[in-house]
Amino acid sequence: MSHKVSRRNFLRTSLYSGAAVAVASGSVSPMLVLAQDAIAPNDKITCAVLGVNGRGGSHIDGFLGNPKTIITYIVDPDEKVGIARCDQIEKKQGSRPKFVRDMREAFDDADLDVVGSATPNHWHALSAIWAMQAGKDVYLEKPATQNLFEGITMVAAAAKYGRICQVGTQCRSNPALRDAVAFLAEGGIGEVNFARGLCYKRRKSIGALGDYTQNIPEHVDFNLWSGPAVYTEPRLTRPRFHYDWHWQRLYGNGDSGNQGPHQLDIARWGLGLMRHPNKVVTYGGRLGYQTERKDLNYVDAGDTPNTEVSVFDYGDKTIVFETRGLETPALDQASVGVIFYGTEGKLIQQSYGRCFVLNKNGEMVKEFKGGSDQLHYDNFINAVVSRDASTLHAPVLDGHLSAAMAHLGNISYYLGEKNKLSQGEIATALEKIESRDDNKATLQRTVDHLVANGVDLDATPLSLGPQLIFDPEKECFVDCDEANKMLTREWREGFVCPDAKNV
After folding, report:
1. Sorting pLDDT into bands at 50, 70 and 90, what band is 39?
2. In this predicted model, what pLDDT tens digit does every residue of 185-204 receive, in sequence order?
3. pLDDT at 174
4. 358 - beta bridge partners?
5. Angle, to 10 degrees, between the axis of helix 373-386 and the axis of helix 56-64?
6. What is the mean pLDDT of the chain?
């Protein structure tokens, strides 16, 4: 892919080439970027937004909300959606961005500075890598990747090309979370070595598995939409084109990889973990939709689990993540959040803008508030101006580590998907799994919520995956070729993600 390069980006690239040599030699941290050639204060930072049907609206608002930026490109394979966004932006901004279907056309513009990528998951990493190769800085929606291989390459690309790359885990910029994590680090609830992430979000069936070729809109370029994913000639197996790709593993990562990267990121951040886990085991299933439809033979079009519990072992610390797509009560007043367990109490992230502390008697003794999406975009733009990646609140390495947790957990589940067991059999297996959680109690709560939703676990039992050993340094599983194959994907010609050495 060839790109025109502006004088400003040429100067930056020249500077960063020297920096890349230093990074490769180990004398400079890959998270530091030279501060020379900062954008002049009066220059508008030109922005492209990729994927504007859903979360892309937040990217548009974030760039429109910053006086230093101007949106010059809207990119989407859905022309109808893209044109509508251009109309919306023109009214607010006073100038109309150019609409293109293919992101590479925008990347070829030497005057484009910044890319905001809110594409479907299967496009996240490759769009960011291509943009950085073209000399653009990137605000990348979560999850940063759809598989671990992409993350390794993306971290390498940011270092090699000296780019500013922020991941959209916006809690990192919210005062409620920043103050709460600082409180944890100061020993506010004593020693903390265990955190539980929660994704209790009701998700109804997306419809029956079938052939929905006619549901691909005529105004969508399905070849570009598919990108790195296997091309299905063009054919859908779900009734609704947009959004429901989240629940098909060809494109999405289920809710553990959709909502999960927010809470997984907070859990890892609060525990001070800047590495991959040593072990992971997952149990779960896609359950309850047969009950909804009153048809035991009903097959939902999604193939990612809607009930999923993953246990991540870091040696000295543990993170458990619970995904529940059926109705379920809050735990410690949190439904989508994180609970940190300390020797002197609990700290609970209840929302993106609120955390509170319970003492050992269950009494609330402290509260943290404040946050907005705009803070995260502003943090990114300030780093773009200063050329100092160390000021980013959610740099690419953090995005990679947090997304990878979801990927590792899903891999354990997928490998054990056909290993359907009774509650007693799973309980017996979990007794052998080292954890700072009460594995048996968590399993019981999971079973109780399924039964409360009418799930017949004799007819549709839970699946238990293997406990997989992971090498955090080599970023691969130990002695499990089948699992290692799932760290990447089958790439399509023209949309191949390079490896870290050849990025």
Report:
1. low
2. 999 999 999 999 999 999 99
3. 98
4. 346, 364
5. 60
6. 93
Confidence of residue 42 (pLDDT cuts 50, 70, 90): low
Q: What angle do CA 165, 248, 445 make, to 5 degrees?
A: 95
Better-scored residue on pLDDT, 124 or 292? 124
* β-bridge partners, 471: 476
pLDDT of residue 16: 43
DSSP symbols for 5-66: --HHHHHHHHHHHHHHHHHHHTSS-TT-----SPPPTTSPEEEEEE--SSTHHHHHHHHHTS
Could you count the other beta carbons within 10 Å of the beta carbon of residue 342? 20
106 CB-near residues (< 8 Å, 6+ apart): 48, 50, 73, 75, 98, 100, 112, 115
**Percent of the chain scoring above 70 in pLDDT:** 92
Q: Is the pLDDT of residue 19 over 70?
A: no
**Amino acid in the structure at residue 453:** N
Q: Strand 192-200 and strand 318-324: pairing?
A: parallel
Q: How far apart are CA 355 and CA 345, in angstroms?
A: 13
Helix (H) or strand (E) holding 348: strand 345-351
Distance CA 247, CA 300 (A): 10
Axis-axis angle for helices 148-161, 396-415 (nearest 10)? 170
Contact 159, 25 (CB under 8 A): no
**Closest to 17 in 3D by CA, of 159, 195, 218:** 159
Cβ atoms 384, 62 nearer than 8 A: no
Those residues whose C-beta lies under 8 Å from the C-beta of residue 398, and which sit 6 or more positions away, are 167, 169, 172, 265, 269, 274
Q: Please name the residues in contact with 206: beta carbons below 8 A apart, sequence gap of 6 or more.
A: 238, 239, 240, 244, 247, 300, 301, 302
pLDDT at 29: 42
Which distant-in-sequence residues (6+ apart) come within 8 Å of 53 by Cβ? 76, 78, 81, 242, 243
User: Distance between CA atoms of 224 and 102, rounded to whole angstroms?
Assistant: 7
* Phi, psi for residue 405 in degrees, rounded to 5: -60, -45
Q: In this predicted model, which residue has the larger pLDDT, 157 or 10? A: 157
- Ramachandran bin of 196, using left for φ above 0, alpha for ψ from -120 to 50, beta for the remaining angles: beta
Q: Quote helix, strand, coil % in the chain, to nearest 5.
A: 35, 20, 45
3-state secondary structure of 313: strand
How far is 333 from 348, CA to CA, in rounded Å?
Answer: 8
